[in-house]
Design goal:
- The protein has 3 helices and 17 strands.
- With 243 residues, the protein is mainly beta.
- It has 2 domains: 8-143, no CATH class; 157-218, no CATH class.
- Strands 1, 2, 3, 4, 5 and 16 form a 6-stranded antiparallel β-sheet that branches. Strands 6-7-8-9 form a 4-stranded antiparallel β-sheet, with helices on one face.
Length: 243
């Protein structure tokens, strides 16, 4: 069994100074909500999950790998380290959500869900701190009741409807398009999307009055770089169109 030596924690500290070699594993980011995406990379042969706040251009680890490894080890009775988290295995059906809650914050907190050893699990990653635990943590993983549900089909939307359901926004040829609901003819809203810096379908968002649609244009250099922290604001641009 590999001995925990806070290897990843040390690497992340060094990364803050901009010194860690990283190679992207996944070809594209996953948008858990319209202003934040995550991706997986490899640091010295170990998987690291990263997140980017698109609004502020801040890149950082999605979670504390060491703290999550301790929580999983305690709750699953399996042994994990910061460098051996299981989520890279497609069979775990790893999902990032922002639907967690706690006493001070009723909604919108970070959580992950996955399948491990034929059981469904959920980890709240912004729960209340429990200072009586060893070590103290605000991570809370629980095994879900009942059998593991079948793997859901890919439900990535091809278009995002406006709140009034009259319009649909989508990305085609790296740019944002809009059309009347159910129609085939569409209007191009953006012209600056490219294969190197495309608009991201997962970032499409409508205003409440259904008159404005927005999306982020993101440079792929973010998940291909050798940094695991710092600002990437210059590599992200937000577009908004009113019609």
């Amino acid at each position: 069994m590999v001995k925990v030596r806070l290897v990843l924690g040390a690497l992340l500290v060094v990364a803050g100074a901009g010194v860690v070699a990283i190679n992207a594993q996944d070809p594209a980011p996953v948008w858990a909500k319209s202003d934040a995406f995550w991706y997986r990379t490899t640091v010295s042969g170990s998987h690291v999950w990263m997140t980017v706040n698109a609004e502020h251009g801040v890149r950082q680890p999605l979670f504390d790998h060491q703290r999550l490894a301790i929580e999983l080890t305690q709750k699953t009775e399996m042994e994990f380290t910061a460098t051996t988290l299981p989520f890279a295995n497609p069979g775990t059906r790893f999902v990032v959500k922002y639907d967690g809650s706690s006493v001070p914050v009723p909604h919108g907190l970070l959580a992950i869900e996955f399948v491990l050893d034929n059981a469904a699990w959920r980890c709240e990653l912004e729960a209340e701190w429990d200072w009586a635990r060893t070590p103290p943590s605000d991570y809370e993983c629980t095994k879900q009741d009942g059998p593991v549900p079948p793997a859901p089909p890919d439900t990535s939307p091809t278009s995002v409807p406006s709140p009034d359901r009259k319009w649909e926004a989508f990305v085609q040829n790296d740019n944002v398009m809009v059309r009347a609901a159910g129609a085939t003819a569409a209007k191009t809203l953006s012209k600056d999307g490219t294969s190197a810096r495309p608009y991201q379908a997962g970032s499409l968002s409508w205003s409440e009055d259904s008159k404005t649609v927005s999306a982020y244009r993101v440079d792929a250099a973010i998940w291909r770089s050798n940094d695991v922290s710092g600002t990437v604001k210059s590599l992200i641009a937000k577009g908004a169109w009113t019609f």
